[in-house]
Amino acid sequence: WASADDMLADEGVDIVYVATPIGLHAAHAARVLESGKHLFCEKSLTTTLTDAETLVEMARSRALALCTTFGPIHHPQFTALRRLIEDGKIGKVVSLTARFGFPHLEPGNARYSAALGGGVLLDAGVYPICLSAEILGALPDFVSARRQSADGYEVDTSGTAMLEFPSGAVANLEWGYGRHYRNEVEVWGETGSIFAHRAFSKPPDLTTELIVRKQDGENTVEIPAADIFVTMLDAQVNCLDDPARREAYWTRALDHQRLVEQVIEASS
């Protein structure tokens, strides 16, 4: 194609994956939906809940898929973690702790541009924030949060949040640029805990594990390697002709954006 317009006009194109900087998602995603194409969009979907609601309404009115590509929930590690919790292996969940952070990127990276929707919250913080709701099965009814910007940066470079859920469980979350790599989740229950390393981002050939800790010792559950993009895209493709699955993805997109906006408002 000579241009994006040519691609959007091509009747042989069914789905467009938007992976531009987050600040451009709302405009680019709207063009995709207006052209009648299904939309797969990198997280975060947009920078505001209002823009996300507009996109979902566009998708709904056209019976089009709108899927935010939130990979961790499509990996077998997450499936195994949720099954252990649902099976009562650690009793009632009391709290969840998650951290996702890594060294600074190159200074010219779009993630450091306020005009392009940069900042660590929308880029990396969204992972522990939204995964906590996926694990605990609800949106929180109270959010306390803080964001910081390191000297010399025009966007937020680190953040913390404490979320209280209807079940009584609490999520303690941290994220940031410019720090030692951490990528982990620990779920603490009344009778045990589960630790997941590489919970958010993993190479396709990496065998992961869950460590289940009980009073009488530890048990390691090995998780087979999986390409998170393949499993995610397979799941999303299945919703193209399935109204119920499309609705589930619309709901998830709005729930995730609503939760991120709660953190933004609480940290402003």
Write a structural description.
- The protein has 268 residues and is an alpha/beta fold.
- The protein is 34% helix and 27% strand.
- It has helices spanning 4-9, 25-34, 49-61, 76-86, 120-136, 228-237, 243-266, and strands at residues 15-18, 38-42, 66-69, 93-102, 142-148, 158-164, 170-177, 182-189, 193-197, 208-214, 217-223.
- The protein is globular.
- The termini are far apart.
- The model has no long low-confidence stretch (mean pLDDT 97).
> How many distinct beta strands?
11
Largest sheet properties: 8 strands, mixed
- Tell me the structural class: alpha/beta
For the largest beta sheet, what order do the strands appear in spatially?
5-6-7-4-8-9-10-11
Kindly report the average pLDDT value. Answer: 97
Q: What share of the residues lie within helices?
A: 25-40%
Q: Span between N and C termini?
A: 43 Å
**Unreliable stretches:** none
- Envelope shape: globular
N-to-C order of helices and strands: HEHEHEHEHEEEEEEEHH
* Beta-strand content: 25-35%
Q: Helix count?
A: 7
User: What is the alpha-carbon Rg in Å?
Assistant: 19 Å
